[in-house]
Amino acid sequence: MSSTQARRWIGTSVARKEDRKLLTGQGSFVDNMTLPGTVYMALVRSPYAHARIVAVDTTAAAGAPGVVAAFSGADLADDWKSSLPTAWLPTEDTKAPPHYPLASDKARYAGDAVAVVVASSRAAAKDAAELVAVEYEPLDAVVDPEEALADGAPLVHDDLGTNRCYTWKLDGGDVEKAFADAAVTVSCRLRQQRLIPNAIEPRACLASPVVDEVTLWSTTQVPHILRVMTTVVLGIPETKVRVVAPDVGGGFGSKLNVYAEEMLVVALARRLRVPVKWTEERSEGYLATIHGRDQWQEIELAATAEGRITAVRARLTAAMGAYLQLVTAGVPLLGAWLYAGCYDVDAYSLECTGVFTHTTPTDAYRGAGRPEATFAIERAVDALARELGKDPVEVRRLNFIREFPSTIASGLTIDSGDYDAALDRALELVDYDGLRREQAERRARGDAKQLGIGLSTYNEMCGLAPSRVLNAIRYAAGGWDSATIRFLPTGTVQAVVGTSPHGQAHETTFAQIVADSLGCTPDEVEVLHGDTSISTLGMDTYGSRSLAVGGVALYNAADRILEKARAIAAHQLEVDESDLEFDAGGFSVRGTDRSLALKAIAFEAWTAHNLPDRMEPGLEASAVYDPPNFSWPAGTHVAVVEADVETGAVDLIRYVAVDDVGTVINPMVVDGQVAGGIAQGVAQALWEEAVYDESGQLLTGSMVNYAVPSAAELPSFELDRTESPSPTNPLGVKGVGETGTIASTAAAMNAVIDALAPFGVTDLDMPATPERVWRALEEART
Amino acid sequence: MIPAAFDYEVAESVEHAAELLGSREDAKLLAGGHSLLPAMRLRISRPGLLVDVARLQDLRYVREDGDRIAIGALTRHHDLERDPLLAARCPLLSHAASEVGDLQVRRRGTIGGSVAHADPAADLPAVLTALDAEFVLHDGRTLPASDFFRGVFETALGPGDVLTEIRVPPQDGAGFAYLKFRRRSQDWATVGVAAVTRNGSAAIAFANMGPTPVRAAAAEQAYADGGAAAAGDAAAEGTDPPGDTAASPDFRRHLARVLVRRALEEAKSG
């Protein structure tokens, strides 16, 4: 019904409704909330990456000023009905060792919590935590996932007898034959360094007990999942648990989890009968909030002499860290179907081995598996172009998928796309030929600052996802989402959604969808989310799913509102429903001037004075949507760098991104998502790296030496779009939250190598620090 | 990021500050706080008493004093950056001050605090070493830069000593450069090179090429003999650079060579 309506708001850069509140300091973040009688939790964390916990003495801490209680892991052992949850075991024999909120036998990474102190102030709790005496027996640690697989490596979990968590395989087509027949093959061994997510708001949680009920406010992306898991871990009936995600300041996947601290504040609030609050310190977060990436990748391409890629073979060794958090084991597999990128190959094989190491657990970090895949295939395609002496653009064009929907060798089906259109536009915007000329001139002159041009023609799968597919890959939950739309008596609209934004502007963009369907303005639509007592049904926000799943549920709910409203209008106007047309927020009788506004119908539905027989009062409708496919954004990114071949410094001087994310609801919000994603992806290429020493100490323990770039390091990005609506949903939308990160790491690294290739450098680990660039140039010289 | 408990006193005068500072072994002066407070928040530094000197406004000045430019210890980086006397007669110092930290650090941080903190990676100690600055204490003693910096976060200041003034010779007509190599604009220098050139001679000092700011003696000699390229080749001689996650000692030596050459070329053309 509403699909025939003209779109007035969709496609418009409506100003973010969220910003007035946030910019005037009126947001409600968890750390701002304090209830009467609140006490504060501080954790005692292991300084060792691997140590036996011999004894924990909390006596001195318990007697310190302001202290309410202090507990060791053993003290709280009976509070847990279950280990902390892990919802994705990729194979039947995946090893999921126990993981309790406090370690009691061994510490398995530097930062593993071993005791907890509760006091009347944050400062008192922190001071008292220093008084907990823990006797450790330090043990050897292993931090590299390949070294962890070697014979004799220290074991993270003794009982398992191995550090191997799982090995998962995917095959499509005859890969062996393709490689045997190949005129050309290339192979790359690549390192996906470990990253630290760095949401601007640190984690925080506050639990308040009332009789046998508990409310948990948390900086979470997943209030619904968190409620289910609170029941699982603590045995509290779901009816007695309310979880609220108030304003949340970024997540990037790091808040898509169920953390020890969340379970601890609930358990302690119930024990102590007072509200218990914990706020992460930034340096604590570096140790205790999940990390991303950390894998070794090997990728091989088989190709014809002309450069047509016939097969891709990839092998991953992925670090899990010390324990499996919520989706740790599955993260590398979110990219497992994408190692052939947007290229039409005949055969495909991928093997991934997950490995425990004595490090902070890894889990979903923006893009989760897909940036890794794009990086590998885009680096390999550039290597193929160099091998053949061809321009990287030419090799890409030779291999693009061009017919949609397209079932790819790895087995999934791409919904829609036009890869040439994005590439054409990006090359035009960046003036590719002009840049190549300038590059040649600089090379000829022997300038200290050489130019590098890097391409990433990417696609990705997002909008998690068809529930049946998630079951097939052994993910424990579904991929649907829900929405309820409710007219209030005076004609304003509530839209209750099951997704849970933490910076994505759902209050604006979802209101735009509803406004177009119902013929009102976005200001008249209030979007409610993030509270399990208000939004009772949802699967939350991650994997670029909110619009492609939740937004479609909302659209379908609006259709149901109109269906009921039409019946009321027909009844009151005494005409047949088919004589009514909906336009400009009301129903009119075709060919007459008789009409009834939707707001008036809403009032009629509320008074219920004159409704059709047996119709229920109220104008409210719900929908649950389970998508038939993932959504498949794609595009071309071009990075331009200046590499100083004397100092090794790399400066990103231009960045062009042309993305195809289907129908765009709000161009400004999409530009913001893409720009932020590019910054994070480029950061992996040029700046960020979590470094552990051999004993498992995190050397990059603060923003001083973990180099998150600022605006000063980045150029203004040049953004544009092409549009291939998804045919699998009525809005034509695809996800956009992760595309920037997925595409940009490869573009930036390809640019660095492009600058250095004339000097003999064809490989470089990330990040491309000045020292790495200098060393690579030195090695190539000798 | 909560510091350990500490006592706090406000100094009413330089004499008062010296008295309070001398009263306890674990006392520290608090000026702009942009080095000390982060260290306290990380609990790397745990002074028992903070003596706040930030209100001693009469230590905030830049003025001519005989054949020197005198700078009060509590003059902020931002003041140095904007000072017309420095711009005219010691532009190396105002330029280097504009490269310190970020805007917030420059608005709060003081030259005296930076000198007394003696972080080998800091900008101003290296620049003041190149300028042959002198440091004046509360009791009138004066120490030359060459004798002031003793080690990482270590200076010639004794317990109870308060740095009150920094004196630099004017640089009328000299060429100058401060090249600060860092990965991000707000980072400390991986390597910093301060250079002043005049009549074929050069004064060159490094940030972060050893436990203290250090003069590049070999490069200075090589410059007099053979110019910028020769000075670059000699730049790493006698240095003892640290290794950390930003750079290894070898890479710092390499950077020193490139940056000394570039600094001298820039100083000459400027």
What does it look like?
The complex is a heterodimer of chains A (782) and B (270). With 782 residues, chain A is α+β, with helices and mostly antiparallel strands. Chain A has a seven-stranded mixed β-sheet, sandwiched between helices. Chain A has a five-stranded mixed β-sheet with strand order 7-15-14-13-8. In chain A, a hairpin with a 2-residue loop joins strand 22 and strand 23. In chain A, helix 9 (370-388) runs parallel beside helix 18, helix 11 crosses helix 12 and helix 14 (506-518) runs parallel beside helix 15 (546-573). Chain B has eleven helices and 14 strands. In chain B, helix 5 (91-97) packs antiparallel against helix 8 and helix 10 (217-234) packs across helix 11 (249-269). The longest helix of chain B is centred in the last third of the chain and has 21 residues, at 249-269. Chain B is globular and about 55 Å long. The N and C termini of chain B lie far apart (44 Å). In chain B, 52% of the residues are buried. Chain A binds chain B through residues 122-123, 126-127, 281-283, 646-649, 687, 691, 699-700, 702, 704-705, 707, 709-710, 712-713, 769-771, 774-775, and chain B through 1-2, 4-5, 42, 181, 183-188, 190, 244-248, 251, 254-255, 258-259.
From the structure above, extract its key features.
heterodimer, A: 782 residues, alpha+beta, five-stranded mixed β-sheet, 19 helices, 28 strands, globular, B: 270 residues, five-stranded antiparallel β-sheet, 14 strands, 37% helix, 23% strand
| Overall average pLDDT of chain B | 96
Strand content of chain B: 15-25%
What share of the residues of chain A lie within helices?
25-40%
Multimerization state = heterodimer
Share in helix of chain B: 25-40%
Principal-axes geometry of chain A comes out as globular
Count every helix of chain B, treating DSSP H or I runs of 4 or more residues as helices: 11
Q: Name the poorly predicted regions of chain B.
A: none
For the report, how would you describe the main beta sheet of chain B?
5 strands, antiparallel
Mean pLDDT over the residues of chain A: 97
The class by helix and strand makeup of chain B works out as alpha+beta
Biggest sheet details of chain A = 7 strands, mixed
Q: How many strands in all of chain A?
A: 28
What is the 3D form of chain B? globular
Intertermini distance of chain A: 70 Å
Rg from Cα of chain B: 18 Å
Order of helices and strands of chain B: EHEHEEEHHHHHHEEHEEEEEEEHH
Arrangement of strands in the largest sheet of chain A = 3-5-1-12-9-10-11
In the predicted model, the low-confidence regions of chain A spanning at least 5 consecutive residues are none
